[in-house]
Each structure stands twice: as structure tokens, then as C-alpha cells.
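DYW domain-containing protein (Panicum virgatum), 558 aa
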Amino acid sequence: MPSLAASTSSLPAPPRGGSDGSPTATARSSLNLLRSLARARRADLSHRALLLFRTLHSSPSPSGPAPPPHFSLPAALSAAAFLAALPEGRQLHALAAKLALAPAHTVVANSLVHLYASCGLPGEAVALFRRIPGPTLVSWNTAVDALAGNGDHLAALDLFREMRRGRPDLAPDAYTVQSVLGACAGAGALSLGLYAHALLLRELGAAAAGAAVSRDVLINNSLVDLYGKCGAVKLARQVFDRMPARDLASWNAMVLALANHGRVRDSLDLFDRMTRAENVVPNAITFVAVLSACNHGGLVEEGRRYFAAMVSEYGIRPRIEHYGCMVDILARAGLIEEALDVVAGMDCRPDSIIWRSLLDACCKRNAGLELSEAMAKLALDVPDDAVSGVYVLLSRVYASAQRWNDVGMIRRLMSEEGFKKEPGFSSIEMAGSVHQFVAGDTSHPQSEEIYEKLDEIQQRLTSAGYKPDLSEAPMVADADRTKGATLRLHSERLAISFGLLNATHGAPIRILKNLRVCKDCHTISKLISKIYDVEIIVRDRIRFHHFKDGSCSCKDYW
């Protein structure tokens, strides 16, 4: 796009238009068109909005008097945000700064915060927010959403707390709560989510629009998503069942929540009710949820049937996610040849996730070194940032075959190439605060008590007959004793120890992991749930595990 700044270099400072700074009639018509194009949320019309802004503010403008820039800039910034057009957005920011509109003019500044968030730059968005002289509720909402929408959930919650403490005059609205619910869902922060839900009912329910808020499909969908992602699937189902109106996203969220919690039959029954009794037409996202349910339950035949129905009955062209689910269903069931046939029949290029699924299945099924090495080579041939994950899986294949020299070779290769295993962490919420642990963490204020509890847990596990699965620690240790000690310091064990120290008796311990739970930690979590008579709910990268009375909801199939 031609430079926006060059064509607006002679813009006078605002206000322009009428004597009170409002647009003239001609400028108002141009402004309405600009806003309509920006709000259409279509790439072609957003491009036209930016071109119109350039035309309006050229000198002299062929379109007549231009609207004042503090009216037109927010619309242009909205178009740039929709396109994630960072270069054009920076030009608009420079223009706003030149005209003393950023960060002084709140509406323009809010639009810039949204722009940087949409371009994946939450740090710049929040830095700009901090410079707004008098941030409004919209300013705070935009900044909180900038962090939550870019995955920095804990920072979003911290900013929300800051608003509540520092600006008690600002009452949260539905937009605030929706962003906070999303952040709580991402962080697995159930108690904060319950607080946000109560806030929604208390502060918005009493207002004139309270009834409308309670019927708001988007907010109810956010609540279903929140409770589903925080391990409270029963609460998610309660919200879903009480919704006065549902859209397709409502059904998708509930079907997926049930699937991720291992309630496979409930998930598939809900899908059947959705399509047969409610006559809701599923989309591609629905079938990702359905195939995920089949995957979590090891339902090979049902997976084949739903995949075929997706294509033949609903005319949905399979995406890489559907193929990935189908390959995983077959490979984990030991049908690796059939899974390879699915890959051969794909009408898109397999990604590294598919090859890693096959490699993982080869590892778990002891499919043989030759096939495993072939899968690893195919995964490494696909450009991807997760190369280290392939090496870790291959190292486990070698470890299972007791080929420790090859394990060492993989470790040296990773070191020489600069590859690092993705660092794992586990977080647990307690009394409204989220506590995060990494392997061997000693930074927590309660570290001494946590490790004392960990020693007690280890003694009771050993008394119960526990023996560590040393194949889960080949990349970080050599001697068996060292490997066992390394496993003992996995982040989820520190989180469990912290939970046993601090959780209310009878309350479940809820843990969020950024990686898949390893076999050894899965085993000890089952034992701890029985020894300490506690329910442990772990959300890993793939699904939920509900450990209770010595067993897991996944039925040891994950």
C-alpha cells in the first residue's frame, strides 16, 4: 500500500470541520463511508477503508473537506487491525503522534492499543495503554483483551486486578467480564472464573440490561468454555443446559468439553441430539470435537463412521485437523499401516504433528526401530518450530529399546544444533492466585515445605510398591538413581505437593500443564489420589485426567 504518512504530511492539527470540531456535512458522509468499510470485517473492504483515508487526507483532497483526523483515525486503525497490517498501522500511529492525538486522545489511543494487539504485539499495546492520561473502561477492556487474546492469561488477570484495586470508580461491563472469563479459561483459574461469573450476575444482573446479559449467547458460551477448561465439566453442562438460546458455537464447546474430560459417550450422545433432535447442522469445528472424542475413547469404528459422515452427509472437506485426529485414532490403536494409508490419501501436505503422532504411536506400540526412524525423518523434513519434540520422541524409542548410546547421540545432536526441549511447567490456583512451577523449582516461598512434603509422598509411594519408569527421563540423566531423582522433580509433582499442603480438605487439586503428562507422573498421580484420598484434575496439552481412588478417567489410554 502507498505510504499513508506521505499523503497526510500537511495535515493541520485537530480540530477540523465545524467550529466545534465536528465534521461538516460533506465530511460526515465521507466519515460514515469510512466507518462502514472498516466495520464490514472483510479484507477487501478494509483495504478500501485505508485507501479512502489516504484519499480524504491528501492535500488537497479530491473528495472535498476531510473529517477531523480524531474522527477518521479510529476507523482507519480498525481496518488496519482487522488486516493485521502493522506497517500501515505504524504509519497511522506516527500521524496520530504528529497531530498530538496519541496517546492524548483516548479514542485514538484505544484504537492503537487494539491495533498492536491484533498484530500480535501485546507488549506494545500495554505500553501504549500505560501512557494514556485518563484511561476509560474501554481502555482497560482493550488492554486486558490484548493480553488475553495473545495468550498472556496471567498478565491479563493481573491487569484486571489492578483495575479493580486502582479504579474502583470503573464498574466492569459485559466486555470486561468476557475477556476475564477467557483469561481464566486459558490459565485454568477456576476460582477467579467463579468470581468473574458472580461479578457478572451481581453488577450486571441488577442493571436494566441484566436480563439481556443472562441471555447473551456469547457470554454463556464463554462460561461453558471457562468451566470446561478449568476441569469443572459439570458446571459447564449446567450452564449449557440452562441457556435460553444456543448457537453452533455453544454445541461445539460442550461437545469438545465432554470429549476432553473423557466423557466420550456423553459427548457423542450430545452430538447426536444436536444433529437429530435439534436439527443443528455441524461444521468443521464440530467434527474436530467429535473425532477428538473418538480419539480419547479409542473408538476406532466410530471414528471411521463419523469421518465418513462428515464428508458424505455434510459435504465438509477434511482439513489437516480432521486427518490428524483420524491418524491418531488409528495409530494409537496399533493400526499404523491404516494410518499411513490415510496420510497417503490426504489432499493436503501432512504437517509435523501428524508425523509426530505416528512416531509417538510407534514408540508406545514398540513398532520397531526402522519404522520409528522413518517417521522421525519425515517429521524432521517438515519445516516446524517443534523439532526438539521429534528428537525427544525418538530418544524415547531408543530408550525403550535400551539403546542408551543412541539416546546420548540424540542428546549431543540437540546440544550441537542448539535445540532445547520445550520447558515444561505446571500451574495450580490457590486462594485466587496462580502458582507456577518448573522442574526442580526452588523459587516458591514455600519451597522448603513443598520438598519436605515431596519426601513424604515419595516414602508413601515406595511403601505402596511404586517403581519409577526410567524411560521417561533419558534426556536429562544417565545413572538410574539420577533418573529417578529427576522424575521426582517433575513440575506436576511439585504442584501436587503444593496442593496437598494448601488445599482445603475434600477439595480437588486442579493442575494445568503445558505438555502432555508423562507415564511415570500419570502412575504416581493415580497412587497419590488413593493414598491421600484426594481428587487430582490435570489438564495437559491434549486432554483432562481426573485421578480418583487410584484410577484415571482416561482409563490409561492417552
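Strands lie at 425-430, 433-438, 509-513, 536-539, 544-548, 551-552. The mean pLDDT is 88. ok done for today
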